[in-house]
Specification:
alpha+beta; nine-stranded mixed sheet; 17% strand; globular; two-stranded antiparallel sheet
Length: 484
């Protein structure tokens, strides 16, 4: 049968139009979620390394030339592996059982100065600060968690830095004050620089039978004008460090497994059938337990502190992962796998702590100058931690990372869960950016991502502690107002 030339021509034209339409739609539509959230490198999991164990032999992670970060392209997994290995290394016990960060790091205050309070004999750290991140809410324990004690205990915070950060900070501060370096400079902290922030509570607030599950040590604690020697239990710890190609630091956080419940985005409620350190027996859909009164510095509802996002990975009502600049399913899978892997190997008290998030910037395909330029350009924007999926922002990892013991009241600035979206997520990079510091608060440098370096610089320039705190609060409140 002879084909009709006219019909063939029409069919050809229709095919061309169809291809054009498909191509146009493909260009305009975002990536399908299945493609965006593909399993990286064909792996089914992200594993720890058996060479990290036993814990008293954990080596420091490779961070410089020849490390996994010394590459044009990186994977989510290597940041999770660094986070766990770095945590194991900073908590590695010495011959007396003292963790590395207490035995070899310098304890400092928020202005990178040695605490003025002298340690009492037989104590390993000084604790005077009770102010949380952001505006400074005060976190207290559930008064009936310990049946023998019907009173609350306040959570305290301690800061530590390693020698690499100390030496670099001394040099950079001198050079800035002597005008050898401009206030707007492109210097970065050297690879291996580390900051630690830790959260502690009086061990008496924890039931006697559960106390062996916490790392405890003797501390010199100041309550008002009273200075006492108290056995303190560790609740959480931030491990913040510089690796090659990441001058913005990797921000990793760990916390105890049994101090507060996690909000369910499936049911939009949070509950606990048993007393926990920061949460009583209750079920609520309110966010009042993690929102606080700025006048009294106390939560709107006491003893209902909870984790808003498991692993710092945002969800939406109904429980699906929020679409952000990072693949929620991949990040969640890698973190879950890492936590499980470490749990099978770790045998000491630190097995009671878990990895709850890490964040960094996408520096793939960038040289050092481009990395510095990215930090500078993002610091000029209202939200350094912007995690929008389109156009894809640069924040990676747990884009809403927080620690229940340190950012209790900074997990969100919204009062109801339905108002939380990718445009108002709160994280480490909400406050920490390259534009938060300097002698005045209008200078830009990767150095200023460190708030304690900001304080160190301001203090050397003659500012008082109160003036520095007021400047930091002013910057914070400006961000909150811009968000709203």
């Amino acid at each position: 049968m002879k084909a009709n030339p006219k019909l063939l021509l029409n069919a050809l034209l229709l095919a061309v139009v169809a291809v054009f339409l498909i191509s146009s739609c493909k260009d305009k539509d975002p990536k399908p979620i299945a493609e965006e959230y593909q399993i990286e490198d064909g792996k089914s999991s992200c594993e720890c390394d058996s060479l990290w164990f036993p814990h008293d032999q954990t080596p420091p992670p490779k961070e410089d030339v020849g490390s996994p970060f010394d590459a044009r392209n990186t994977t989510n997994c290597i940041f999770q592996q660094w986070s766990w290995q770095k945590f194991l290394w900073v908590t590695k016990p010495d011959e007396n059982g003292l963790p590395n960060f207490l035995s070899t790091f310098d304890q400092v205050d928020s202005n990178m100065e040695t605490p003025t309070l002298t340690k009492l004999p037989g104590t390993n750290l000084v604790l005077t600060s009770t102010a949380q991140a952001g505006g400074g809410g005060i976190l207290k324990t559930n008064p009936v968690y310990n049946a023998q004690l019907d009173q609350t205990e306040t959570v305290y915070y301690g800061l530590f830095i390693n020698d690499s950060l100390r030496q670099a900070s001394d040099r950079f501060r001198t050079e800035i004050l002597d005008s050898i370096l401009p206030n707007n400079n492109s210097e970065t902290f050297p690879v291996g620089s580390v900051e630690i922030k830790s959260a502690w509570v009086n061990s008496i607030s924890i039931p006697y039978d559960l106390l062996p599950n916490y790392y405890t040590t003797m501390a010199t604690v100041q309550k008002g004008t009273t200075v006492s020697k108290i056995k303190m239990a560790l609740l959480g710890i931030h491990v913040v460090g510089v690796v090659i190609n990441h001058p913005e630091f990797i921000w990793a956080t760990f916390e105890h497994k049994d101090i507060a419940p996690t909000y369910s985005w499936d049911t939009t409620t949070v509950s606990s059938s048993a007393q926990q350190l920061l949460f009583g027996v209750a079920t609520t859909s309110s966010l009042n337990g993690i929102n606080w009164d700025k006048t009294t510095t106390t939560p709107n509802t006491p003893n209902q502190a909870f984790t808003l996002f498991e692993y710092g990975i945002p969800r939406v009502l109904g429980g699906d992962f929020m679409l952000t600049s990072e693949s929620g399913p991949v990040n969640h899978r890698n973190m879950s796998s890492m936590n499980e892997c470490v749990n099978t190997h770790l045998k000491d008290v630190w097995s009671n702590y878990f990895f709850n998030g890490a964040m960094w910037l996408d520096m793939d395909q960038k040289n050092h100058e481009q990395q510095v330029h990215l930090i500078d350009s993002l610091s000029h924007t209202p939200n350094f931690g912007n995690a929008s999926p389109s156009p894809k922002a640069f924040v990676r990892g747990s884009v809403s990372a927080a620690n229940i013991s340190m950012e209790t009241f900074e997990q969100t600035h919204k009062t109801v869960a339905s108002e939380i979206n990718v445009g108002n997520l709160v994280s480490c990079f909400y406050c920490h950016s390259g534009g938060n510091g300097g002698i005045s608060y209008d200078h830009y440098s990767p150095l200023y991502i460190s708030h304690i370096f900001n304080g160190f610089l301001n203090k050397a320039n003659g500012a008082s502690d109160d003036e520095i705190t007021a400047k930091k609060l002013k910057v914070y409140l400006k961000k909150v107002r811009m968000e709203k």
